[in-house]
UniProtKB/TrEMBL annotation:
GO cellular component: mitochondrion
HAMAP family: MetX_acyltransf
GO terms assigned for molecular function: homoserine O-acetyltransferase activity; serine O-acetyltransferase activity
Domain AB hydrolase-1: 125-456
Protein name: AB hydrolase-1 domain-containing protein
Family designation: Belongs to the AB hydrolase superfamily. MetX family.
Gene3D superfamilies according to UniProt: alpha/beta hydrolase
Annotated segments matching region Disordered: 70-89
SUPFAM superfamilies named among the record's database cross-references: alpha/beta-Hydrolases
InterPro entries recorded: AB_hydrolase_1, AB_hydrolase_fold, HAT_MetX-like
A biological-process GO annotation: homoserine metabolic process
Length: 502
């Protein structure tokens, strides 16, 4: 026996003696601690000694492994990465560089869009419709793409966005993956996919790109800017960035600044996605996409899109098959619903787009201080554009783990969000909208963008001097659909919007 092996055995024995752990000469556990079962599979090992209980089966993991194997075996010509197309759409190419808020730039970019209705001679009937996080420009069916859009019933003759009166434009945001330039697009500088070389975006960057499209279409002023969820953020931002070019503003289930709860939820989604080994720090194109991380991220998101009371009515505590024993894979109906939602989405949307667009939502803040800080940063970056080569994120993790701050609100006297004073920073930031007729619409059952955030918008606008604010809040007696109400409630969401635009 070699000297090194003798020393190693002595070290191990001394360690166990120090810990007062009894060991046998060959480290063989007693019979009562034998865990192998008589089940034959990769996880449980070959058939050995009988166990008290059989090993559980995991069809959900089997399905994931089968999907990975299928993606690995796809044609090298097509690659395993999905194409992320949403059917025929229009596309505007801008060859003028777009300087971004955080110092990055797009030397050129494409923006995908679709239109409905007819533009009048004065071009005064234009409504710009802003999308949520993962939506395409396909809000309504068209002749070239008859597939129903994500707001199909809200657009058309006599609908809330009445195509007999208005010319409706909807774009896919930059950073997205449905035709607009995003991380899955190719960098014109080298022809390679951007991946995580794509620059950090803000909601305002997305809006500036949209107004480049309006410039191309020679549309000077919008009749209205309309959006829900992330689109509600964009709708407000459009008015703040281009107050002279926006007439009315409708913001549905949105906010004027992102708050910690929604930031935390999106952070969690990004983390489970980035921890998928196939994500590969964003360079997964022409390889196996991080479908497992995307599935889990979507399941987390889906939890925030609806409300607990609705799920009580819809699923209750029912199991998918009560005749079978409980399982660790999806078992309750609510679990199978979430599993289906995640599975359906995991290859329909680019993982990097989810990261970038959700981060833009986190950064959203229309307060005066943030606007001033961003304007100064843009000016500094504009004057130093030639020096931007090689600049990268220098963020490092803190040396010490997080510790509770000394000055925190007393848990015995919690802050009542409903009764906090109107934030003056937001009042100053939205002052520019004091003459814009504005519809602010919220839903009491919404947990992702709680109704108090829409009340905050309305209160801030009124404090800024706006006398044309229409605030509508749907109680739980009207809708239990939570955040998704804006997609489903044609009567109350659509009705309020139609009356506001009339």
């Amino acid at each position: 026996m070699s000297r090194s092996l003798i020393r190693l055995r002595a070290t191990i024995r001394d360690t166990f003696r120090t810990l007062e752990v009894p060991i046998s000469p060959r480290f063989t556990p007693a019979k009562k601690y034998t865990y192998r079962t008589n089940v034959t599979n990769a996880a449980a090992g070959s058939q050995t000694l009988n166990s008290t209980n059989p090993a559980l089966s995991f069809p959900c993991l089997d399905a994931r492994e089968e999907k990975t194997a299928t993606l690995r075996g796809r044609s090298l010509d097509t690659g395993p990465e999905p194409s992320y197309t949403s059917g025929d759409h229009l596309k505007h190419h801008s060859s003028e560089a777009l300087l971004l808020d955080w110092g990055g730039a797009l030397a050129q970019f494409d923006i995908a869009y679709e239109t409905w209705g007819r533009l009048n001679e004065s071009k005064s009937n234009v409504i710009l419709l802003h999308t949520g996080l993962s939506a395409s420009s396909h809000a309504h069916s068209t002749e070239s793409n008859p597939k129903p859009g994500w707001w199909e019933k809200f657009i058309g003759p006599g609908a809330p966005l009445d195509t007999e009166k208005y010319f409706v434009i909807c774009t896919n945001v930059i950073g997205g993956c449905y035709g607009s330039t995003g991380p899955s697009s190719r960098d014109p500088a080298n022809g390679e996919v951007y991946a995580t070389r794509f620059p950090i975006l803000t909601i305002q960057d997305m809006v500036r790109a949209q107004f480049r499209l309006l410039d191309h279409l020679k549309i000077d002023k919008l009749f209205a800017s309309v959006g829900a969820s992330m689109g509600g953020m964009q709708s407000l931002a459009a008015g703040v960035l281009f107050p002279e070019r926006v007439g009315r503003i409708a913001t549905i289930s949105g906010c004027a600044r992102s708050h910690p709860y929604s930031i935390a939820l999106r952070h969690t989604q990004r983390q489970v996605l980035m921890m998928d080994a196939n994500w590969n720090r964003g360079f997964y194109y022409n390889s196996i996409p991080p479908h497992t991380g995307m599935k889990l991220a979507r399941e987390i998101a889906t939890v925030t899109y609806r409300s607990g009371p609705e799920w009580e009515q819809r699923f209750g505590r029912r199991r998918a098959d009560p005749s079978k024993p409980p399982a660790l894979c999806p078992d309750f109906l609510i679990e199978t619903y979430l599993d289906h939602a995640g599975e359906k989405f995991c290859l329909e949307y680019d993982a990097n787009s989810l990261l970038y667009v959700s981060k833009a939502m986190d950064l959203f803040d229309l307060g005066a201080a943030n606007q001033t800080r961003t304007a100064n940063l843009r000016q500094e970056n504009e004057s130093n554009r030639s020096d931007r080569q090689g600049i990268s994120c220098s963020l490092t993790l803190p040396d010490e783990p997080y510790e509770e701050q000394q000055e925190v609100p007393s848990l015995s006297n919690p802050i009542d969000i409903k009764e906090t004073s109107t934030p003056q920073d937001l009042v100053a930031g939205l002052q520019v909208l004091n003459k814009h007729p504005t519809l602010v619409l919220g839903v009491a059952s919404d947990s992702l963008f709680p109704a108090w955030q829409q009340r905050e918008i309305a209160d801030v606008l009124r404090a800024a001097g706006n006398r044309s604010v229409t605030h509508v809040e749907l109680g739980e007696d009207v809708s239990l659909f939570g955040h998704d109400t804006f997609l489903l409630d044609l009567e109350h969401i659509g009705g309020s919007l139609k009356r506001f635009l009339a």
